[in-house]
Specification:
By secondary structure, the chain is mainly α. The protein starts with 19 loop residues before the first helix and ends with a helix. The protein has helices at 20-28, 39-52, 54-67, 76-83, 121-136. Helices cover 45% and strands 0% of the residues. The protein is built from 5 helices and no strands. α1 runs parallel beside α3 (54-67) and α2 packs across α3 (54-67).
Length: 137
């Protein structure tokens, strides 16, 4: 360390072994930021890896890099987004089922092109009514 340099300003260019899984996943997505973080920042990354896991951190980094207008030049760009992530679910946790379409919704879905071949609700009701009248006669 030189005289004018403090311990805070030291950057670590080597990726620590604990961070290798998330760095490898981000690199596999063809995103190559600089990983020169301070020792304090690496401690934060370690804590985030333990809390959220490498999969969640890597997915967040890839999404952030895709949204970045000018690309991502440094891994520090990901730290704020990583700190906002929730903890990883406990092992064995079953994902919640997706909500059923239109259950409790006040929105009527727009009919698709395939639905154009089927009669609408009013036409179905008219057919049922006509069948009931025909049965009575």
């Amino acid at each position: 360390m030189s005289e004018g340099e403090s311990a805070r300003d030291v950057r670590v260019a080597v990726v620590p072994e604990f961070a290798r899984p998330v760095v490898d996943r981000i690199s596999a997505a063809e995103i190559y930021p600089a990983w020169t973080l301070t020792p304090g920042e690496w401690i934060v990354v370690d804590a985030l890896l333990k809390r959220s896991g490498p999969d969640m951190l890597a997915a967040s980094a890839v999404q952030a890099a895709q949204r970045a207008r000018n690309g991502v030049s440094h891994a520090r760009y990901f730290l704020r987004a990583w700190q906002a992530l929730p903890p990883a679910p406990a092992p064995g946790t079953v994902p919640a089922a997706a909500p059923a379409a239109n259950r409790g919704s006040n929105v009527v879905p727009f009919p698709s092109a395939a639905a154009a071949d089927r009669p609408g609700r009013a036409a179905q009701a008219a057919d049922w009514y006509a069948d009931l009248l025909a049965e009575e006669q």
